[in-house]
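Posted in: Structural Biology > Protein-Ligand Complexes

Title: Requesting predicted complex, zinc ion in pocket

I'd be grateful if someone could produce the C-alpha cells for the following input. Sequence and ligand are given below.
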Amino acid sequence: MGTALVYHEDMTATRLLWDDPECEIERPERLTAALDRLRQRGLEQRCLLLSAREASEEELGLVHSPEYVSLVRETQVLGKEELQALSGQFDAICFHPSTFHCARLAAGAGLQLVDAVLTGAVQNGLALVRPPGHHSQRAAANGFCVFNNVAIAAAHAKQKHGLHRILVVDWDVHHGQGIQYLFEDDPSILYFSWHRYEHGRFWPFLRESDADAVGRGQGLGFTVNLPWNQVGMGNADYVAAFLHLLLPLAFEFDPELVLVSAGFDSAIGDPEGQMQATPECFAHLTQLLQVLAGGRVCAVLEGGYHLESLAESVCMTVQTLLGDPAPPLSGSMVPCQSALESIQSARAAQAPHWKSLQLQEERPPPLLPGGPVCKGAASAPSSLLDQPCLCPAPSVRTAVALTAPDITLVLPPDVIQQEGSALREETEAWARPHESLAREEALAALGKLLYLLDGMLDGQVNSGIAATPASAAAATLDVAIRRGLSHGAQRLLCVALGQLDRPPDLAHDGRSLWLNIRGKEAAALSMFHVSTPLPAMTGGFLSCILGLVLPLAYSFQPDLVLVALGPGHGLQGRHAALLAAMLRGLAGGRVLALLEEDSTPQLAGILARVLNGEAPPSLGASSVASPEDVRALMYLRGQLEPQWKMLQCHPHLVA
Ligand code: X5A
Ligand code: ZN
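-- Reply #1 --
Done. Output follows.
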C-alpha cells in the first residue's frame, strides 16, 4: 500500500546565529544527510513523496496555548540580539527568524503523514523534520523543540479521524517530557519512552522521567518510562525492552495507530546518547511495531546528531517501512545487567495497570552469580557505519510453491507462484529413507519445496511457502532441515506447530534449534529442543511469542527459519500471520513456511502476504493468558534462561 516520505527543504533554513555549544549539534545538515542517503540507496524513489505544509495556528492550538503560539510567531521579526535574549528564557533553545515557519512545517508534516495513513493513501511513512518536537510543552520551547510535532499529530488523529487508541513510541535517547506532560491523564494515548537517565544525572534531569512515573488520573498506566541508567545500551538491550515491556502492553492496548518519535540519537556514535545500538536495530524496532495497528506506523524525526549514524538509521527505518526484511543484528544478543534492572523496574511499576504483566511478575528471579555488564560507551568508527548492508537483496522477495497452483489465491503482483521442481532423481534420493514420502503426491510436493529452499539458500528468493500432504509433513520437514544444514545454513531455527516430532537422527550439534508448539506439556529436553503447549487464548499465544519464541530466536541468531504448520496445529489464521510476521525479523527474513496441502487458500494467502512484508491483521482486544499457559511459559523460561539470555527480563541477584 506504500510508504510516504514527508519533507520540505525550507526546514533546513533554521540555524544557529551565535555561539552555543549546546545547540550547535542540531544542524541543517541533519536533514540533507538523511535525504541524500535515502536517494543514494534508491529508497526515496520507492516512497510517495509529500511536500510538507505548514500547520495552521488552530492545529498548533491542539496542544499549545495561544499566547505561546503568538510568542513564537513574533520571533520572525526579531533581530539577533532579541532572539538570543528570548532563547535564554528557555532550556536548550536557539531561535532563528525562520523558526516559526520551519516549526509550522515540521508540525504540518506530521499532520500530513497521519492524514495520508488514516485515509488509506499509504500504509505508513516517515516525516523528516526540523526542529524536533518531543520536548516542547503547552507554553514552552525546550531541548531544540518548538512545537510538539508528534503530540499535535496524535491530538489531530483523535479529533479529525475519531481515533480512540494511539500508541506513541519515543525511541529518541532523551525523555520526551513534553509528550508525557501533554497526555499524562489521557488513557487514549499510550506514551512509551526509553531514555538516557543515569539516575537523574542526564538532561533534562527530571524526577518524572523515572520508571515510577506512570501517568495520573484516568491516564494511570498510560505513561511508560524506561530509564537507562548506563550508557552503552545496544541491540540486545533495545530488543529486550520491546519484547518484555513495550510489546506486551502495546498488544493489550490494541492501538489504532502507532506514532514514533523517531530520534536516532539512541544509535551508535551519537554524542548525546553514547549508546551502542547499530542502525540495523532500527529496522528491527520498526518491524516489531509494524505488527500493531494493522501496520499503520507514522515515524517523525526527533533527534540524531551523528550524521553518518543518523543517515544510516533513517535508511533502515524507511527500508523496513517499505516492507524489506530487517538485516540480521550483529553482536552477541545478551542484554546487560543495568538494562535488565531498568526493564524489571518498569515492568514492576506498570504491573498494577496491565493484565499481561500481572501473572508473570510473581516469580522470583533465579539466583546466579553476576552476569555481563554493559560495554562502555565507544564512538563509532565511521568505517564501521560506511559499509553497505552485506546482504544483497534477493531478486524475489517471496515465492509460493504450492503443489496445485491455486487460482483462488489472492497474491500481490510481486509474489511469484513457483513452477519449478528439484530434479526427480535428487528428490527421490532425499525421500528414500522416509516411507511417507514414497507416494507420488508427497514426492511432487517435496520436489517443489527443495527447489524453493535452494532458491532461498542461493539468495535468489528471500522467503516462501510450500505445502505437503499431512501424512508426509514430518518427513518433509526432516528433509528440509537436513537439506538446509548441508547447503549453507549455519544455524537453523525450526518452529513446528502441531503433531511434529523432532527428527530422531537430527544431530545435537547446536546448529539447529527445534521449538515445538503442540499441546503436550512444557519441556526443555535440551537447550536446542524445546516443546511447549499450544496456548488456548490470544493472550497466551502473544506471551508465548514475545516471552519465549522471539527471545529464543533472537538469542540463537539463525540464518534460516522454517515454520511448519503440521497436523492438528489448530492455529487461527491471524495467529499464524502474526507468528510469521514476527519470525521475519530473524535470518534477514529468510523464512520458509510449510503448510498442509489441504490448508485453506486464505491461510496460504495471508502467510504469503505477511512474509512479503505486508502487515498482519491486528488481533483486536486480546484475552489474557490462562493460568496454565502462564505456568508453562514461566517453567520453560526458568529452564532456558541461563542459556538463552534474551529470555531474561529480571537482573541476576548477586549473593
Ligand atoms: C530532540 C533532542 C535534545 C536536547 C539536548 C539538550 N533534543 N542538551 O534530541
Ligand atoms: Zn534526543
